[in-house]
Amino acid sequence: MASSDAADPGRITEPSSSGRTSPPGPREPRNGVSNGKVRTGRTEPIQPISVLRPAAWLLVALAVLRTHADPDLWGHVRFGLDILRDRALATVDPYSFTQDTPWTNHEWLSEVTMGFAFSLGGATGLLVLKGIVVFLAFVILWHALRDVAAPWRWGCLSLVALAAHPLTLTVRPQIWTLLLLVVLCRLLVAGGRALWLVPLLFVPWANLHGGWILGFGIVVVWSAGRLLDRAGRQELSQLATVAGLSAAAVLVNPYGFEMWEFIGTTVRLSRVDITEWQPIWRHSVAAVLSWTMTVGFVLVHWRREGRPPTAQLLVLLMLAIASMRVMRLVALFAPAAVLLLAPRLPRLSVPVVRRSQTMLDSGIVVIVLLLSLRTGVVTTCPAIDAPSAPDMVALAALAEARPSGRMVTAFDWGQAALASMGPALKVSIDGRRETVYSPKTLQAQYQIQLGSADGLRTLENLGPEYVWLPLPDARRTRDWLTGHGYRIDLETSRSFVATRASLPATVRASILTESPCFPGVPFALP
What count of other Cβ atoms lies within 10 Å of the Cβ of residue 388? Predict the structure, then answer.
């Protein structure tokens, strides 16, 4: 007669020391797999940790599909379209009348991809571009975790999706740094011949985003860690060669050695006027929680699996300190930590297949995404609804009037203005910051918005035809303008447009939906 164990194929058994099968104890085996068989029939009882599985897939789906318009997106697309049109980089900036620094467009390749995507599919094309880049990053992450025990696998995937959310929410050059950082970490832990691929990453990276400096720092710190780990002479020689080739690969850009000089003078751990460059404790509770969860993951892993090798430990320490000082790096700290420690995570001895659970996960994700589309959490275009987004009512009114001349505006709004009205209308400041403006010019423009005595003197000396600034920040400037040769042609709840009194009134209010899709107004024709 067959035993009850044999009659029930869904029951888990594990081999005893005598070779027989016996019921397992009250705890599941640590690796999540019993008797070396792939389970495709009945599923195990759902454990509390099982909720992480659909949650992880949902978070990844939102990372890929949910997209908002960053204030710099207008400029990135505009500059990309210009490069595609001219087949060359601009040597003279045509969009600003206060530029006093040679324009080093270190993100030109990102902008080309954005311009190309926009020219093919408009706002939908940008969604597809961002979705592909972010999806590839998660595919690589998933591949590294494919044979990791379930609690760690789904927990790590959820951690990365949550921590990287501020980065994956927008279409920005930073998404390329996310992807290339993930690839870099995979190559470093793979070692051997895979290390020779590392320098190849820096050729596109140096032209896509300035985050390549973080990647190069990781290569250097990793090499130092392997030296302290007393790696073999052959490996150390290889790492030294890889680091040298990576440094040389960065020079494959339109600016050559100037790229090193540019990064050296602009990248620092403090930019007091940019929110996402603030320390995590000055930014938000969410940033502190994301950083704390990542550090917690590292510490729990350390306690369970022992001290990580020195190379991993030094890189993680560098990223922990840097991301604590600069909030935007938290989104990169989490995936790097997971990938660098992935080889030491608890493994499954064989893959476990649960088709019914996979179908359940898929069903939950589809239902929630449909509800998200219905409620606007996920949109079919980059949504213009961030607090820093331009006042689209005023922008539409200005774009309709097609003014020419010079306009003083705000840092976050300059690229939307130049994309929809430039180069006929030139702006006083925009999100390119150090790539176009000196610190002195940036400070002067901020003082104009605040309405300080120095700022108002600068405004008087510039004598622009138009002024478009946010309320209530610039209310003092607004009041000064009305007494110094300007009139207020348009005022909304968010901003005002002042025009020099000698010019005819051309600006009139436009009606837009509350949350329009990017770009909201037509781009200026070349």
Answer: 14
Q: How big, in percent rounded to 5, are the helix, strand and coil portions of the chain? A: 60, 5, 35
Q: Which two tokens stand for residue 185?
A: 């970490």
In this structure, how many other beta carbons lie within 10 angstroms of the beta carbon of residue 45? 6
Residue pair 411/446 in contact by the 8 Å Cβ criterion: yes
In which element (H, E) is residue 405 found? strand 405-408
pLDDT in tens, 121-141: 999 999 999 999 999 999 999
Q: pLDDT at position 109, please?
A: 97
Q: Is 332 exposed, middle or buried (0-12, 13-18, 19+ CB in 10 A)?
A: buried
Residues 6 or more apart whose CB falls under 8 angstroms from that of 149 comprise: 30, 31, 32, 345, 346, 347, 348
Residue 211 CA to residue 215 CA, distance in Å, equals: 7
Give the count of beta carbons closer than 10 Å to the beta carbon of residue 416.
33
CA distance readout (Å), 107 to 83, 148, 161, 177:
12, 36, 25, 11
Q: Which two tokens stand for residue 231?
A: 């790696």
CB atoms within 10 A of CB 517: 16
Question: pLDDT digits over 54-105, tens only?
Answer: 888 888 988 998 899 999 999 999 999 999 999 999 878 899 999 998 888 9
End-to-end CA distance of the chain: 85
Cα separation, 244 vs 289, in Å, equals: 37
Quick one: pLDDT band at residue 353, thresholds 50, 70, 90? low
pTM of the predicted protein model: 0.86
- Domain residue ranges in the chain: 49-356, 392-500
The secondary element (H helix, E strand) that includes residue 407 is strand 405-408
Residue-by-residue DSSP string for 483-501: TTTEEEEEE-SSEEEEEET
Q: Which two tokens stand for residue 451?
A: 């309405």
CB atoms near residue 260 (< 10 Å) = 16
What CA–CA distance (Å, rounded) separates 293 from 19?
43
Q: In sequence order, which residues have a C-beta less than 8 Å from that of residue 406 and are 6 or more positions away?
A: 97, 425, 426, 427, 428, 462, 464, 465, 466
* Residue-wise DSSP of 86-153: HTS--SS-SSBSS--S----TTHHHHHHHHHHHHHHHHHHHHHHHHHHHHHHHHHHHHHHTTB-HHHH
